[in-house]
Amino acid sequence: MAVIRELYQHTLRETSLNITNSAIDSVMKKTIRKSGCRVYSDGFIGVAGTFGDPGEKTWAEAEERLKNRIPYAFEPEKNKRRTRDLRKLNISDEEFIRESEDLLRILKKEHPDFIFSHKIKICETEISLKNDAGLDYVNLDKTVEFVLLVKHKDSVNIIDSGLLRQGREFEKQELIEDARIFLEAFKIEASLPQDGKVPVIIEKDMLLSKISESLNSEQIGFGTSLFCDKINKKVFNQNLNIIQDRTGEEYHTPFFDTEGITRDGDVCYLIRNGIIEKAYTDKSNASRFSMPLTGSASGDYDDVPSLSNIRLSVVPGSKTLKELVNGVPSILVVMASGGDYTASGDFATPVQMSYLTDGERILGRLPEFYISGNLYDIFGDDFIGMSCDKPFMGERALVVKMNMNS
Questions:
Q1: Is 282 in the same domain as 399?
Q2: pTM, 2 dp
Q3: Residue ranges in the chain modelled with pLDDT below 50
Protein backbone atom coordinates (compact mmCIF):
# COMPACT_ATOMS: atom_id res chain seq x y z
CA MET A 1 0.00 0.00 0.00
CA ALA A 2 1.25 3.47 -0.82
CA VAL A 3 1.74 5.77 2.15
CA ILE A 4 -1.45 7.68 3.01
CA ARG A 5 -1.45 10.63 5.38
CA GLU A 6 -4.54 11.37 7.45
CA LEU A 7 -5.20 14.27 9.81
CA TYR A 8 -7.69 14.06 12.70
CA GLN A 9 -8.29 17.40 14.43
CA HIS A 10 -10.40 18.50 17.38
CA THR A 11 -10.71 22.22 18.05
CA LEU A 12 -12.46 23.63 21.13
CA ARG A 13 -13.25 27.30 21.65
CA GLU A 14 -14.75 28.04 25.03
CA THR A 15 -15.82 31.09 26.99
CA SER A 16 -16.64 30.11 30.56
CA LEU A 17 -18.17 32.31 33.24
CA ASN A 18 -17.43 31.19 36.78
CA ILE A 19 -20.35 31.96 39.08
CA THR A 20 -19.96 32.51 42.83
CA ASN A 21 -22.64 33.86 45.18
CA SER A 22 -25.01 34.48 42.26
CA ALA A 23 -22.56 36.71 40.38
CA ILE A 24 -19.83 36.32 37.77
CA ASP A 25 -16.47 36.30 39.51
CA SER A 26 -14.22 35.48 36.54
CA VAL A 27 -14.21 34.91 32.79
CA MET A 28 -12.09 32.18 31.23
CA LYS A 29 -11.43 31.95 27.49
CA LYS A 30 -9.54 29.19 25.78
CA THR A 31 -8.93 27.78 22.34
CA ILE A 32 -7.42 24.31 22.14
CA ARG A 33 -6.62 22.55 18.88
CA LYS A 34 -5.39 18.97 18.99
CA SER A 35 -4.01 17.36 15.85
CA GLY A 36 -3.44 13.67 15.27
CA CYS A 37 -1.25 12.75 12.31
CA ARG A 38 -1.76 9.23 10.99
CA VAL A 39 0.34 7.48 8.40
CA TYR A 40 -0.82 4.22 6.80
CA SER A 41 1.52 1.87 4.93
CA ASP A 42 1.66 -1.87 4.16
CA GLY A 43 -0.90 -2.84 6.82
CA PHE A 44 0.61 -0.74 9.60
CA ILE A 45 -0.20 2.63 11.18
CA GLY A 46 1.94 5.30 12.76
CA VAL A 47 0.37 8.06 14.86
CA ALA A 48 1.80 11.23 16.35
CA GLY A 49 -0.01 14.11 18.00
CA THR A 50 0.55 17.77 18.72
CA PHE A 51 -1.27 20.82 20.02
CA GLY A 52 -2.06 23.32 17.30
CA ASP A 53 -1.57 22.60 13.62
CA PRO A 54 1.02 19.96 12.76
CA GLY A 55 4.24 20.65 10.95
CA GLU A 56 6.54 18.31 9.09
CA LYS A 57 8.14 17.34 12.39
CA THR A 58 4.88 15.75 13.60
CA TRP A 59 4.38 13.94 10.30
CA ALA A 60 7.96 12.68 10.49
CA GLU A 61 7.27 11.36 14.00
CA ALA A 62 4.20 9.51 12.70
CA GLU A 63 6.20 7.95 9.88
CA GLU A 64 8.94 6.99 12.33
CA ARG A 65 6.34 5.14 14.41
CA LEU A 66 5.53 2.93 11.48
CA LYS A 67 8.67 1.09 12.60
CA ASN A 68 6.75 -0.02 15.71
CA ARG A 69 4.70 -2.16 13.31
CA ILE A 70 1.34 -1.46 14.89
CA PRO A 71 -1.00 -3.52 12.70
CA TYR A 72 -3.86 -1.80 10.89
CA ALA A 73 -5.06 -4.05 8.11
CA PHE A 74 -7.76 -1.72 6.79
CA GLU A 75 -7.58 0.94 4.13
CA PRO A 76 -8.53 4.41 5.30
CA GLU A 77 -11.77 5.85 3.93
CA LYS A 78 -11.44 7.45 0.49
CA ASN A 79 -13.20 9.96 -1.77
CA LYS A 80 -15.87 11.08 0.67
CA ARG A 81 -16.74 14.69 1.48
CA ARG A 82 -19.24 16.21 3.89
CA THR A 83 -19.46 19.25 6.14
CA ARG A 84 -22.21 19.47 8.77
CA ASP A 85 -22.61 22.84 10.47
CA LEU A 86 -25.02 22.73 13.43
CA ARG A 87 -24.14 26.19 14.72
CA LYS A 88 -27.01 28.64 15.27
CA LEU A 89 -25.68 30.94 17.97
CA ASN A 90 -24.35 34.32 16.91
CA ILE A 91 -23.40 36.23 20.05
CA SER A 92 -20.26 38.13 20.98
CA ASP A 93 -18.43 37.43 24.22
CA GLU A 94 -19.42 40.88 25.47
CA GLU A 95 -23.10 40.22 24.77
CA PHE A 96 -22.82 36.75 26.31
CA ILE A 97 -21.42 38.22 29.53
CA ARG A 98 -24.03 40.99 29.55
CA GLU A 99 -26.92 38.57 29.02
CA SER A 100 -25.58 36.23 31.69
CA GLU A 101 -25.26 39.08 34.17
CA ASP A 102 -28.88 40.00 33.47
CA LEU A 103 -29.94 36.37 33.92
CA LEU A 104 -28.23 36.19 37.32
CA ARG A 105 -29.75 39.52 38.34
CA ILE A 106 -33.24 38.20 37.56
CA LEU A 107 -32.61 34.91 39.36
CA LYS A 108 -31.31 36.73 42.41
CA LYS A 109 -34.26 39.11 42.44
CA GLU A 110 -36.93 36.45 41.92
CA HIS A 111 -35.35 33.87 44.24
CA PRO A 112 -33.64 35.75 47.09
CA ASP A 113 -33.64 32.63 49.30
CA PHE A 114 -31.24 30.82 46.95
CA ILE A 115 -27.56 31.15 46.07
CA PHE A 116 -26.38 30.23 42.56
CA SER A 117 -22.90 29.04 41.63
CA HIS A 118 -20.74 27.14 39.14
CA LYS A 119 -20.68 27.90 35.37
CA ILE A 120 -22.30 29.27 32.25
CA LYS A 121 -20.29 28.62 29.12
CA ILE A 122 -20.26 28.72 25.35
CA CYS A 123 -18.59 25.74 23.71
CA GLU A 124 -17.76 25.65 20.01
CA THR A 125 -16.20 22.57 18.45
CA GLU A 126 -14.77 21.75 15.05
CA ILE A 127 -13.95 18.09 14.48
CA SER A 128 -12.44 17.04 11.18
CA LEU A 129 -10.94 13.99 9.49
CA LYS A 130 -9.10 14.49 6.21
CA ASN A 131 -6.62 12.46 4.18
CA ASP A 132 -4.80 12.61 0.88
CA ALA A 133 -7.02 9.83 -0.50
CA GLY A 134 -9.98 12.18 -0.86
CA LEU A 135 -11.59 12.01 2.59
CA ASP A 136 -12.80 15.38 3.88
CA TYR A 137 -15.20 15.35 6.84
CA VAL A 138 -15.95 18.36 9.05
CA ASN A 139 -18.45 18.65 11.92
CA LEU A 140 -19.14 22.04 13.52
CA ASP A 141 -21.24 22.69 16.63
CA LYS A 142 -21.79 25.43 19.19
CA THR A 143 -23.81 25.33 22.41
CA VAL A 144 -24.54 27.28 25.55
CA GLU A 145 -24.39 25.25 28.75
CA PHE A 146 -26.01 26.43 31.98
CA VAL A 147 -24.76 24.44 34.94
CA LEU A 148 -26.04 26.33 37.97
CA LEU A 149 -25.77 24.68 41.36
CA VAL A 150 -28.37 25.89 43.81
CA LYS A 151 -28.20 26.22 47.59
CA HIS A 152 -30.93 27.45 49.90
CA LYS A 153 -29.61 30.11 52.26
CA ASP A 154 -30.86 28.19 55.31
CA SER A 155 -29.53 24.83 54.18
CA VAL A 156 -26.55 23.05 55.75
CA ASN A 157 -25.86 21.30 52.44
CA ILE A 158 -23.18 22.42 50.01
CA ILE A 159 -25.61 21.85 47.11
CA ASP A 160 -29.37 21.46 47.31
CA SER A 161 -30.35 21.28 43.65
CA GLY A 162 -29.36 22.33 40.17
CA LEU A 163 -30.57 24.17 37.09
CA LEU A 164 -29.16 22.49 33.99
CA ARG A 165 -29.80 23.34 30.36
CA GLN A 166 -27.88 22.98 27.10
CA GLY A 167 -28.86 24.21 23.67
CA ARG A 168 -27.73 25.85 20.47
CA GLU A 169 -29.28 29.18 21.42
CA PHE A 170 -28.99 31.37 24.52
CA GLU A 171 -32.11 30.06 26.29
CA LYS A 172 -32.31 32.76 28.92
CA GLN A 173 -36.09 32.93 29.27
CA GLU A 174 -36.33 29.15 29.34
CA LEU A 175 -33.86 28.96 32.22
CA ILE A 176 -35.72 31.69 34.11
CA GLU A 177 -38.89 29.63 33.71
CA ASP A 178 -37.05 26.48 34.88
CA ALA A 179 -36.02 28.37 38.01
CA ARG A 180 -39.57 29.52 38.69
CA ILE A 181 -40.93 25.99 38.34
CA PHE A 182 -38.28 24.14 40.32
CA LEU A 183 -37.34 26.62 43.02
CA GLU A 184 -40.92 27.35 43.96
CA ALA A 185 -41.51 23.60 44.20
CA PHE A 186 -38.33 23.24 46.26
CA LYS A 187 -40.06 25.11 49.08
CA ILE A 188 -42.90 22.58 49.14
CA GLU A 189 -42.18 19.35 50.99
CA ALA A 190 -43.89 16.48 49.21
CA SER A 191 -44.41 12.95 50.46
CA LEU A 192 -42.86 9.93 48.82
CA PRO A 193 -45.21 7.48 47.12
CA GLN A 194 -45.61 4.25 49.02
CA ASP A 195 -42.64 1.87 48.85
CA GLY A 196 -42.78 -0.33 45.78
CA LYS A 197 -42.54 0.27 42.04
CA VAL A 198 -43.18 3.83 40.94
CA PRO A 199 -42.61 5.74 37.66
CA VAL A 200 -39.19 7.39 37.69
CA ILE A 201 -37.97 10.05 35.26
CA ILE A 202 -34.21 9.70 35.16
CA GLU A 203 -31.15 10.77 33.14
CA LYS A 204 -30.67 8.23 30.35
CA ASP A 205 -26.91 7.71 30.58
CA MET A 206 -27.22 6.44 34.15
CA LEU A 207 -29.47 3.56 33.12
CA LEU A 208 -27.94 2.92 29.70
CA SER A 209 -24.41 2.44 31.01
CA LYS A 210 -24.83 -1.34 31.44
CA ILE A 211 -26.34 -1.73 27.99
CA SER A 212 -23.43 0.25 26.49
CA GLU A 213 -20.94 -1.95 28.31
CA SER A 214 -22.74 -5.15 27.31
CA LEU A 215 -23.11 -4.26 23.60
CA ASN A 216 -19.35 -3.83 23.22
CA SER A 217 -18.40 -6.20 20.38
CA GLU A 218 -15.08 -7.12 21.95
CA GLN A 219 -16.80 -8.27 25.15
CA ILE A 220 -19.42 -10.19 23.18
CA GLY A 221 -16.75 -11.72 20.93
CA PHE A 222 -14.67 -12.90 23.87
CA GLY A 223 -17.70 -14.17 25.79
CA THR A 224 -17.55 -11.74 28.72
CA SER A 225 -20.70 -9.72 28.00
CA LEU A 226 -24.06 -10.03 29.69
CA PHE A 227 -25.55 -10.23 26.17
CA CYS A 228 -23.36 -13.02 24.74
CA ASP A 229 -26.29 -15.39 24.09
CA LYS A 230 -28.89 -12.73 23.35
CA ILE A 231 -28.01 -11.38 19.90
CA ASN A 232 -31.08 -11.48 17.61
CA LYS A 233 -33.31 -12.29 20.57
CA LYS A 234 -36.13 -10.23 22.05
CA VAL A 235 -35.11 -9.49 25.61
CA PHE A 236 -36.58 -6.03 26.21
CA ASN A 237 -39.86 -4.17 25.84
CA GLN A 238 -41.46 -4.21 22.38
CA ASN A 239 -41.37 -0.40 22.35
CA LEU A 240 -37.67 -0.08 23.23
CA ASN A 241 -35.37 1.12 20.46
CA ILE A 242 -31.75 2.02 21.25
CA ILE A 243 -29.39 3.64 18.78
CA GLN A 244 -25.92 4.95 18.33
CA ASP A 245 -26.95 8.54 17.65
CA ARG A 246 -24.82 10.87 15.53
CA THR A 247 -27.70 13.15 14.53
CA GLY A 248 -28.06 16.78 15.51
CA GLU A 249 -30.00 15.63 18.56
CA GLU A 250 -26.63 15.00 20.21
CA TYR A 251 -24.33 17.93 20.97
CA HIS A 252 -20.69 18.01 19.82
CA THR A 253 -20.95 14.52 18.36
CA PRO A 254 -19.52 14.23 14.84
CA PHE A 255 -21.41 12.33 12.15
CA PHE A 256 -18.34 10.12 11.64
CA ASP A 257 -16.29 7.93 13.97
CA THR A 258 -12.52 8.19 14.33
CA GLU A 259 -12.06 5.81 11.38
CA GLY A 260 -14.30 7.92 9.14
CA ILE A 261 -17.24 5.50 9.12
CA THR A 262 -20.72 7.00 8.75
CA ARG A 263 -24.24 5.57 8.76
CA ASP A 264 -27.32 6.47 6.72
CA GLY A 265 -29.23 9.15 8.58
CA ASP A 266 -26.39 9.32 11.13
CA VAL A 267 -28.16 6.59 13.12
CA CYS A 268 -27.34 2.94 13.82
CA TYR A 269 -29.96 0.75 15.51
CA LEU A 270 -28.51 -1.69 18.03
CA ILE A 271 -31.78 -2.67 19.74
CA ARG A 272 -35.00 -2.55 17.72
CA ASN A 273 -38.45 -3.37 19.07
CA GLY A 274 -36.82 -5.00 22.09
CA ILE A 275 -34.58 -7.25 19.97
CA ILE A 276 -30.81 -6.95 20.35
CA GLU A 277 -29.83 -6.70 16.69
CA LYS A 278 -26.10 -6.14 16.89
CA ALA A 279 -23.11 -5.12 18.94
CA TYR A 280 -21.27 -1.91 18.13
CA THR A 281 -17.99 -2.34 16.28
CA ASP A 282 -14.93 -0.67 14.88
CA LYS A 283 -13.20 -2.06 11.78
CA SER A 284 -10.95 -4.38 13.79
CA ASN A 285 -13.66 -6.07 15.84
CA ALA A 286 -16.12 -6.24 12.94
CA SER A 287 -13.48 -8.19 11.01
CA ARG A 288 -12.27 -10.29 13.94
CA PHE A 289 -15.73 -11.48 14.98
CA SER A 290 -17.54 -11.30 11.60
CA MET A 291 -19.96 -8.67 12.86
CA PRO A 292 -21.59 -5.75 11.02
CA LEU A 293 -19.50 -2.57 11.01
CA THR A 294 -21.36 0.10 12.98
CA GLY A 295 -18.85 2.97 12.95
CA SER A 296 -18.07 3.00 16.68
CA ALA A 297 -14.32 3.64 16.71
CA SER A 298 -13.18 6.23 19.21
CA GLY A 299 -10.04 7.42 20.94
CA ASP A 300 -8.10 10.57 21.66
CA TYR A 301 -6.61 12.66 18.89
CA ASP A 302 -3.22 10.91 19.09
CA ASP A 303 -4.53 7.34 19.55
CA VAL A 304 -4.85 4.53 17.06
CA PRO A 305 -8.61 4.31 16.40
CA SER A 306 -10.11 1.62 18.60
CA LEU A 307 -13.28 0.56 20.38
CA SER A 308 -14.56 1.75 23.73
CA ASN A 309 -17.97 2.00 25.37
CA ILE A 310 -20.19 4.56 23.63
CA ARG A 311 -23.08 6.82 24.54
CA LEU A 312 -26.43 5.46 23.43
CA SER A 313 -29.83 7.05 22.94
CA VAL A 314 -33.36 5.76 23.43
CA VAL A 315 -35.51 6.59 20.41
CA PRO A 316 -38.43 8.82 21.48
CA GLY A 317 -41.93 7.44 21.19
CA SER A 318 -45.07 9.28 20.14
CA LYS A 319 -46.26 10.28 23.61
CA THR A 320 -45.51 13.35 25.71
CA LEU A 321 -44.37 12.99 29.30
CA LYS A 322 -47.86 13.90 30.44
CA GLU A 323 -49.28 11.08 28.34
CA LEU A 324 -46.63 8.59 29.50
CA VAL A 325 -47.19 9.33 33.19
CA ASN A 326 -50.98 9.61 32.77
CA GLY A 327 -51.50 11.38 36.10
CA VAL A 328 -49.70 8.79 38.22
CA PRO A 329 -47.51 10.43 40.91
CA SER A 330 -43.96 10.11 39.58
CA ILE A 331 -40.43 10.93 40.67
CA LEU A 332 -38.23 13.32 38.68
CA VAL A 333 -34.63 12.60 39.64
CA VAL A 334 -32.36 15.66 39.68
CA MET A 335 -29.34 14.41 41.65
CA ALA A 336 -28.38 10.75 42.16
CA SER A 337 -24.83 9.61 42.81
CA GLY A 338 -23.18 6.63 44.42
CA GLY A 339 -25.03 3.91 42.55
CA ASP A 340 -24.16 1.42 39.82
CA TYR A 341 -24.99 -1.91 38.18
CA THR A 342 -23.76 -5.27 39.39
CA ALA A 343 -22.26 -7.77 36.95
CA SER A 344 -25.64 -9.50 36.65
CA GLY A 345 -27.52 -6.30 35.82
CA ASP A 346 -28.98 -5.27 39.19
CA PHE A 347 -29.03 -1.49 39.61
CA ALA A 348 -29.36 0.60 42.77
CA THR A 349 -28.58 4.18 43.73
CA PRO A 350 -29.42 6.68 46.44
CA VAL A 351 -31.32 9.73 45.20
CA GLN A 352 -30.16 12.92 46.85
CA MET A 353 -32.53 15.35 45.12
CA SER A 354 -35.82 14.78 43.33
CA TYR A 355 -39.28 16.21 42.80
CA LEU A 356 -42.78 14.78 42.73
CA THR A 357 -44.55 15.36 39.41
CA ASP A 358 -47.75 14.42 37.63
CA GLY A 359 -45.97 14.66 34.29
CA GLU A 360 -47.04 18.24 33.76
CA ARG A 361 -46.47 20.11 37.03
CA ILE A 362 -43.71 19.93 39.62
CA LEU A 363 -45.58 19.31 42.87
CA GLY A 364 -42.85 19.48 45.53
CA ARG A 365 -39.47 18.38 46.80
CA LEU A 366 -38.97 14.82 48.01
CA PRO A 367 -36.73 13.56 50.82
CA GLU A 368 -33.78 11.26 50.07
CA PHE A 369 -34.49 7.62 49.19
CA TYR A 370 -33.17 4.67 47.16
CA ILE A 371 -34.23 3.31 43.78
CA SER A 372 -33.36 -0.09 42.36
CA GLY A 373 -34.22 -2.53 39.62
CA ASN A 374 -32.86 -5.18 37.29
CA LEU A 375 -31.77 -4.24 33.77
CA TYR A 376 -34.19 -6.69 32.14
CA ASP A 377 -37.11 -5.35 34.18
CA ILE A 378 -36.21 -1.66 33.80
CA PHE A 379 -36.12 -1.93 30.01
CA GLY A 380 -38.63 -4.77 29.86
CA ASP A 381 -42.05 -4.75 31.51
CA ASP A 382 -41.16 -1.65 33.54
CA PHE A 383 -40.17 0.48 30.54
CA ILE A 384 -42.78 3.21 30.06
CA GLY A 385 -41.15 5.25 27.30
CA MET A 386 -39.02 8.15 26.12
CA SER A 387 -41.08 11.30 25.69
CA CYS A 388 -41.45 13.00 22.31
CA ASP A 389 -41.42 16.40 24.04
CA LYS A 390 -38.78 18.11 26.19
CA PRO A 391 -40.82 19.04 29.25
CA PHE A 392 -38.16 19.94 31.84
CA MET A 393 -34.78 21.67 31.41
CA GLY A 394 -34.84 21.17 27.66
CA GLU A 395 -34.44 17.38 27.82
CA ARG A 396 -36.56 14.45 26.72
CA ALA A 397 -37.82 12.36 29.60
CA LEU A 398 -36.95 8.68 30.04
CA VAL A 399 -39.65 7.05 32.19
CA VAL A 400 -39.33 3.61 33.78
CA LYS A 401 -40.78 1.91 36.83
CA MET A 402 -38.28 1.21 39.61
CA ASN A 403 -38.40 -0.08 43.15
CA MET A 404 -38.40 2.76 45.67
CA ASN A 405 -37.34 2.41 49.29
CA SER A 406 -37.44 5.30 51.71
A1: no
A2: 0.94
A3: none
